[in-house]
Amino acid sequence: MGRAGALSLYRLRPNKTLFMLCDVQEKFKPVMPLWSDLIENIKKLLAAGKIFNVPLVVTEQYPEKLGKTAAELDIKHACANIPKTKFSMIVPPVMNNIDDIFGGKPKSVVLFGVETHVCIEHTAFDLINNKVNVWLAADCCASRLNQDRDLALERLRDIGCIIATSESIIFNLLSDKNHKSFKDVAGLVKKTSRDVKLWRPTKAPATDKK
Fold first, then answer.
1. Helix 182-189 / helix 35-52 crossing angle, nearest 10 deg
2. Over the chain, what is the mean pLDDT?
3. Of 137, 136, 113, nearest to 61 (Cα)?
4. Would you kindly state where each structural domain of the chain is located, as residue ranges?
5. Neighbours of 83 (CB within 10 A)
6. What are the residue boundaries of the Isochorismatase-like domain, all occurrences included (predicted)?
7. Is pLDDT of 149 > 60?
8. What is the pTM of this model?
9. 92, 108, 91: which is closest to 52 by C-alpha?
């Protein structure tokens, strides 16, 4: 890949980007650490998506047992809300909706939700295999154990996913102070995102050799 092609990976264009919200369901609330912080960060990212008119696809894993998407999240603007049993979001009804939206596939997907080391990871694998640029909104992802989330994010970075915070993604979509939505976005990001305690050490510290 040439330099221009490589740099294009790090630019999000609203009309070529899809938001994918994965399985943020009511039954996860009691077992997911920092749930309220996760929800607040997702709310901000969803609100930004509405400002930029970025299409949103939502999935729910086995909703008969795990419940519907968390009531705190406004997903009324979603193009689709698809129930599934497969871990990956890349199931035929989702693919059909994506094809209807883009007439093919998006250039980039911003992926967020739960659980990072299961459904998020499987979805990212499928998207990468389909040659879609994948952005992980790290502060909008969770697992029951933070170590599972953090190690999954490391694995996904290793295979080419871009790991970013929700605010970084929002500013990437904005790109210019003269953007027509600058004031709306400025009001949105004025409130600091919640700290979800990312990046615990995963390697043993170096020791002095005698």
1. 180
2. 92
3. 113
4. 18-184
5. 14
6. 18-167
7. yes
8. 0.91
9. 108
Residue 34 · residue 190 · CB < 8 Å: no
Token readout for 141 is: 């992802």
User: Based on the number of CB atoms within 10 Å of its own CB, is 100 exposed (0-12), middle (13-18) or buried (19 or more)?
Assistant: exposed
Cβ(87)–Cβ(118) under 8 Å? Answer: yes
Please give the Cα distance from 46 to 82 (Å, whole number).
17
Give the least confident one: 49-63, 90-104, 181-195.
181-195
- Whether 137 and 166 have beta carbons less than 8 Å apart is answered as yes
Listed in sequence order, the residues at least 6 apart from 207 whose beta carbon sits closer than 8 Å to its beta carbon are none
Which amino acid belongs to residue 208?
Answer: D
Region 18-184: CATH code: 3.40.50.850
Q: SS3 for the chain, per residue?
A: CCHHHHHHCCCCCHHHEEEEEECCEHHHCCCCCCHHHHHHHHHHHHHHHHHHCCCEEEEEECHHHHCCECCCCCCCCCCEEEEECCCCCCCHHHHHHHHHHHCCCCCEEEEEEECHHHHHHHHHHHHHHCCCEEEEEEEEEECCCHHHHHHHHHHHHHCCCEEECHHHHHHHHHCCCCCCCHHHHHHHHCCCCCCCCCCCCCCCCCCCCC
The span from the CA of 89 to the CA of 209, in Å, is 47
* pLDDT at residue number 32: 94
